Write the structure tokens for this entry.
Amino acid sequence: MRRSVTRRSRREFIHQVGVAAITAPVAASLITSAHAQEDKRLGFALVGLGSLSTNQIAPALQKTKHCRLAGIVTGTPAKEQAWADKYNIPRKNIYNYENFDRVADNPDIDVVYVVLPNAMHGEYTIRAARAGKHVLCEKPMEVSVKKCEQMIEACKKANRKLAIGYRCQFVPHHVEAIRLAREKVFGDVKLIEASFGFRIGDPNQWRLKRALAGGGALMDVGIYALQGARYISGEEPVEVFASETKTDTVKFEEVDESILWSMRFPSGVMANCGTSYLVGGMNRLFAAAEKGWFQLDPAYSYSGIQGKTNRGLMEFPQVDHFATEMDDFALCIKNNKPTKVPGEEGLRDVKIMTAIYESIRKGRPVKLG
Amino acid sequence: MRRSVTRRSRREFIHQVGVAAITAPVAASLITSAHAQEDKRLGFALVGLGSLSTNQIAPALQKTKHCRLAGIVTGTPAKEQAWADKYNIPRKNIYNYENFDRVADNPDIDVVYVVLPNAMHGEYTIRAARAGKHVLCEKPMEVSVKKCEQMIEACKKANRKLAIGYRCQFVPHHVEAIRLAREKVFGDVKLIEASFGFRIGDPNQWRLKRALAGGGALMDVGIYALQGARYISGEEPVEVFASETKTDTVKFEEVDESILWSMRFPSGVMANCGTSYLVGGMNRLFAAAEKGWFQLDPAYSYSGIQGKTNRGLMEFPQVDHFATEMDDFALCIKNNKPTKVPGEEGLRDVKIMTAIYESIRKGRPVKLG
């Protein structure tokens, strides 16, 4: 424990002054010490070892500059040894859902990355914050506005940072699209079209259970189109109107299958959005501005994002979305700077998605405060 | 007059029996006679010599197999000689808006193509029908449901054919998209995205005057997206919801600038559509089906249509849209077969556009009967 306190204290020092403010001799001492070198990387613990953790996040951690896969939290004992072997994770950094709170005493873990089913995000974010850990939480933030507010409150109270896993905001093509909009490179953006859908497989997965997912296509992938419309417009919608269609009432008994919705923004910008668990091919973020247009298509895949404008192709490097997202959060923590994807950002999307569902139920537009 | 009656009678004979039913000797006599050869092409008179007639339709007539530019109707005397010289149009086939009805006595004119501002379509379609001419009328059919109904009635009463200038329905890429939908090549289409917009130029043109245009972007180019959603779904919408935005309230004082709307179809198919006179770049018809998707982009330009599916590019020849459209109508007349773009088709779109405007005024979804 004594050693952990020392390490924590050092890190706290770095947090407080910011990396840029570290004096040259201090920086040199950090670099020359092998221990300090490892110390520069923040230890991430993944909570939930489903396909996203297995196929995307754990491999991505190996590509980060400022993070390392330090621990895991799983309810499946069989996964413990396999992950320990593959990623050289010490026994003491492996938790299950019962003993997870003991992570408070583990100085190897700086950040808890919550990769659980949506309806478990709140509980594990709050437990992680109470354990003194920063939290990166997958989207959607939670399944209700109230839960999101509790998560924000818990992290604030623990003085820990909370970020939502909006990986696209760290992808160069999306960053460029946001720049084109903000800098009015083609004048003011007026109309946005954004949609993301895919044909979901396994009918037994948690994404199709309301108790675990909270909703269907909208909460899982429609949220990317919602995010896109919001960060391209740079505004918050004042009205939404949505319609739902459901063909496969067995597979999609509990959650939404396909939704189209529109949003009005204060300046008059309008967006048409769509999402689906039934049909693929929708994977696009398009903006029409006064003097031109820009588009990402595919926009939201894990890789292979392509962008173009009326002037030609967007030439940007492909990056590992999750690695970039995690490195950004690590630097926010190290430098004590705000993340651009805080809990408040996740809360806004959940509020809007709640209004989208309300619009479907009521069959009319719903105003947003 | 005697000669004209003879010619008319011969044509009427062909109409009645249909070209396919003509006996071999009769067909041979038609082919071997030089007079008959010319007679095979139907004489078109263009009413309204604006940019569409000048830059698209008249040149397209030169590329047709079954039509010829036989006459013009213009209110601008200066255009008469220029067109007469350029297209070798005899003086007797040149009309103005006052003496247009005398076309009844002109056997050179078989079809009147109405290329006037929208709010004049009804009057000239009805006058042409009463003069015994078949009518091809540009889209939108008219600016009110009532006018459309009067046009259909007039053509029916005169036993003349009426087609609306929905050129895209004759473009191979659109024909293929319709085939993919009807034959369920990728299973049932579930979601459609369709939008068409451009940044309109000259602020003094008739398209921006309510009295002449009836509406703005929606009636002029949004109608392509509406058509697309209808012929891909193969159904009629039962509900529409629309929102409008207007930034330039001077230029667009009288007509709509940008509209996004959604439509629900009886089977559960949904469509998100958009149109704009303010911003370009929207020129797309996309359909997501159960096992794949297909898309045209650009979809509605006069040339250069491109299509692709999740399997790859659509490889189809580029055609002159107007030439193909006019040849189809000529063959419908010659063979006395129904056109796939009759007045009833134009009426449906005007009904739906009327509901779209109603939805904007009322701020709520509008049901369609």
Q: What stands out?
A: DSSP finds twelve helices and 15 strands in chain B. The first strand of chain B starts at residue 42 and ends at 47. Confidence is low (pLDDT under 50) at residues 1-38 of chain B.
